[in-house]
Design a protein that fits this description.
Radius of gyration: 24 Å
Oligomer: single chain
Number of domains: 2
Structural class: mainly alpha
Strand content: under 5%
Distance between the termini: 46 Å
Shape: globular
Number of helices: 16
Length: 463
């Protein structure tokens, strides 16, 4: 009972922390992609379909799948809040629901370890942003658990849920379709080499398991094909524009991914090219010192006190899912010029690896857990350095300081003119970033855009 109250309190503190971060951030943790999500959610609310404005015309949004914007629109319609606030609530409520589910499945202690991954600075940042990544990671964890249940007992009901959760992942991010490829590979592996099952003692030995995996995979791929066909019918593009052509050599991509993996290992602060990295060096030193102290104490004392248990099956599946995601991401990057690999793109890999390790830690003896807990808490707290701006650090801190000063002294109080739906400053002067007061006509390159949403609020997207 005490631990259940601790989880509730931790979720409450997390909510307050996220709300505080959103309020003090000049852009309320929005980005260019956030503009697409919010515009499309607004169009859904006004009955115009899943669309966004391009060249002063509403066009079908094939850039991102419909799932995240649909949830924002639904919550906004049910509560009456703006789409921006609804996007933040979708992320937070999804986290709370996920916590409730994992507490029911695992012991409170093990679920607490798993949920603590969200208190790392990088994942707090993802949670605060109007991005689909929060929902994607939570659904990915649900999919891994469903795969675990299916492999134990491949029933028809569990097969349907495995397909459904995989397709929901695809509707949140196109990348979620990789789960159907993973299921197909598992099915083929079990079919070709049944002896492989001996390494996974908790997997059912039913002869139908590989057949069900292949059927789920094929149905999932067919569902993805239908959605891409729908995109093509409504926008003349299967996925919102030209995405696939040769970009960089394998050598260059290996260097990019190697640097990205280094940043994923550095939980306290990332290194960025052409930016000041003093905090990143500080974070690396702190993390190395923590690991060195832990290893010295672990090797000398803990092994004499207790033995470690084997890796739980669900941890193995998290690891397999994370590594597969990384391989697929690398393969797609060869033919698709997306940005990164950055925090958002690497998050599923890091999330799965950390989830695998934290569930394993939660299955160890209480003595071992008490030993590692203080190191993990210190690492979590230090990782909040990730919440500080990564680009133009000094300039953005000055902007935040100026914003807090302006609010505390009641300078430049904002109010809304409902007749014109413009965000106004004192003396009814329209707020605009453009000399002639005109807005760009296309969302391409939306840096610095002023976008108007359903409530008449105007948001400046982050640069």
């Amino acid at each position: 009972m005490k631990n259940s109250y601790l989880i509730s309190a931790a979720l409450g503190v997390t909510g307050l922390l996220i709300a505080g971060l959103i309020l003090i951030n000049p852009n309320h943790f929005t980005s260019i992609d956030s503009g697409y999500y919010l515009q499309s959610a607004t169009s859904l609310l006004t009955g115009q379909g899943y669309r966004f404005q391009e060249d002063r015309h509403l066009v079908w949004n094939g850039v991102f799948p419909i799932g995240y914007s649909a949830l924002i629109a639904l919550l906004s319609a049910l509560t009456g809040v703006s789409v921006l606030i609804a996007s933040k609530l979708v992320n937070y409520l999804a986290l709370c629901f996920s916590a409730w589910l994992w507490v029911r499945r695992l012991s409170i202690n093990r679920s607490f370890w798993l949920l603590s991954v969200w208190w790392l600075g990088s994942f707090l940042k993802i949670l605060a942003y109007t991005w689909s990544e929060t929902l994607f990671l939570i659904l990915l964890a649900e999919w891994v658990w469903q795969l675990h249940l299916f492999l134990e007992q491949p029933s028809g009901g569990r097969s349907g849920l495995l397909w459904g959760k995989g397709y929901l992942l695809f509707l949140i991010r196109y990348m979620g379709g990789y789960t159907f490829g993973l299921l197909g590979c598992l099915g083929l592996l079990i079919w070709i080499s049944p002896k492989w099952l001996r390494n996974w003692p908790d997997i059912s030995t039913s002869r139908t398991i590989y057949g069900r995996l292949l059927v789920i995979s094929c149905l999932g791929i067919a569902g993805m094909g239908f959605y891409f066909w729908l995109n093509y019918r409504l926008s003349d593009s299967m996925y919102g524009g030209e995405r696939f052509f040769l970009t960089s050599s394998v050598h260059e991509l290996s260097w990019l991914f190697g640097r990205a993996l280094l940043n994923e290992w550095l939980l306290i602060r990332d290194f960025l090219p052409n930016e000041s990295n003093q905090l990143a060096w500080l974070g690396m030193i702190i993390q190395l010192v923590l690991f060195a102290i832990f290893y010295e104490r672990f090797s000398n004392k803990i092994r004499a006190l207790t033995s470690l248990t084997s890796i739980p099956p669900v941890s193995r599946l998290f690891f397999l899912t994370g590594v597969t995601y990384l391989l697929v991401l690398f393969s797609i990057r060869i033919v698709s010029p997306y940005a990164g690999p950055n925090l958002r793109l690497m998050a599923p890999f890091t999330f799965c690896i950390l989830a695998a390790g934290l569930i394993w830690i939660g299955s160890q003896s209480i003595i071992w857990q008490r030993f590692i807990r203080p190191y993990w808490i210190v690492l979590l707290l230090c990782s909040w350095l990730q919440l500080l701006p990564q680009v133009d650090f000094n300039r953005k801190l000055e902007r935040i300081r100026a914003k807090l000063l302006a609010e505390s002294t009641d300078f430049q109080r904002l109010h809304f003119d409902q007749r014109y739906n413009y965000l106004l400053w004192p003396h009814n002067q329209p707020f605009t970033l453009f000399p002639d007061g005109a807005e760009p006509s296309t969302p391409t390159g939306m840096t610095g855009l002023i976008k108007k949403f359903r409530t008449g609020m105007v948001f400046r997207l982050s640069d």
